[in-house]
Amino acid sequence: MSAQPVTVVDHPLVQHKLTIMRKADTATSKFRHLLKEIAHLLCYEVLRDLELERIEIETPIETMMAPRLEGKKLCFVSILRAGNGLLDGMLDLVPSARVGHIGLYRDPETLKPVEYYLKLPEHRDERLFIVVDPMLATGNSAVAAIERLREAGATNIKFVCLLAAPEGIETFQKALPDVPIFTASIDRELNDHGYIMPGLGDAGDRMYGTK
Ligand code: URA
């Protein structure tokens, strides 16, 4: 099976905001604000194929058949903790969406993900799941999170990140060829510590002012 494409959302507004986020001297509050704004624009792209139905409404002038979103509610799934920054922006656009959380930490020795938390809504086989994590670095966390979601019954899944490393994309597409990736940038490579280069550092630390 050939892998689903990677969609790079290269709109000038996204690229401009991302440049400010990358700068080491950008303050925490500004970083969070920009991440939320970029999440709006990524959300717009990842939901482009949502199905619409027609309902009859009254405008002040006449009756019309108007489009509205159909079907079961979406579910955004945040990979903790940095996923929450993207999640906030997504929820601004779709406030009625359900929200799931998955907690994975990266073992510093093996760089492999270890699960410590999972909470998801019901009716999983009827929902579109949008899994969010700002950094697709090794790809191990994203793959583990999505495989776990599948075990839990999710069938329709898309993945959104802010930055992706080529190594992470390769791992992801090998394991999950049917899951499309949406990102604002494909960066150059990973360093020996699993950080994306040029990247923006540790997304969680930059969002929350930790070290
Ligand atoms: N996680 C981050 O927060 N940053 C990276 O560069 C890689 C993984």
Automatic annotation (TrEMBL):
Record CDD domains: PRTases_typeI (cd06223)
TM segment ranges: none
GO biological process: UMP salvage; uracil salvage
Binding site for 5-phospho-alpha-D-ribose 1-diphosphate: 81, 106, 133-141, 202
Co-factor note (free text): Binds 1 Mg(2+) ion per subunit. The magnesium is bound as Mg-PRPP.
Top-tier EC class: transferase
Activity regulation note: Allosterically activated by GTP.
InterPro entries: PRTase-like, PRTase_dom, Upp_B, UPRT, UPRTase/APRTase
Keywords annotated in UniProt: Allosteric enzyme, Glycosyltransferase, GTP-binding, Magnesium, Nucleotide-binding, Transferase
Documented EC number(s): 2.4.2.9
Gene Ontology CC annotations of this record: cytoplasm
SUPFAM superfamilies: PRTase-like (SSF53271)
Residues reported to bind uracil: 196, 201-203
Alphabetized GO MF terms: GTP binding; magnesium ion binding; uracil phosphoribosyltransferase activity
Cofactor: Mg(2+)
Annotated metabolic or biological route of this protein: Pyrimidine metabolism; UMP biosynthesis via salvage pathway; UMP from uracil: step 1/1
Domain Phosphoribosyltransferase, residue spans: 8-210
Catalytic activity entry: UMP + diphosphate = 5-phospho-alpha-D-ribose 1-diphosphate + uracil
NCBIfam families given in the database record: PRK00129.1 (NF001097), upp (TIGR01091)
Function: Catalyzes the conversion of uracil and 5-phospho-alpha-D-ribose 1-diphosphate (PRPP) to UMP and diphosphate.
Protein family: Belongs to the UPRTase family.
Protein name, UniProt field: Uracil phosphoribosyltransferase
Organism: Nisaea acidiphila
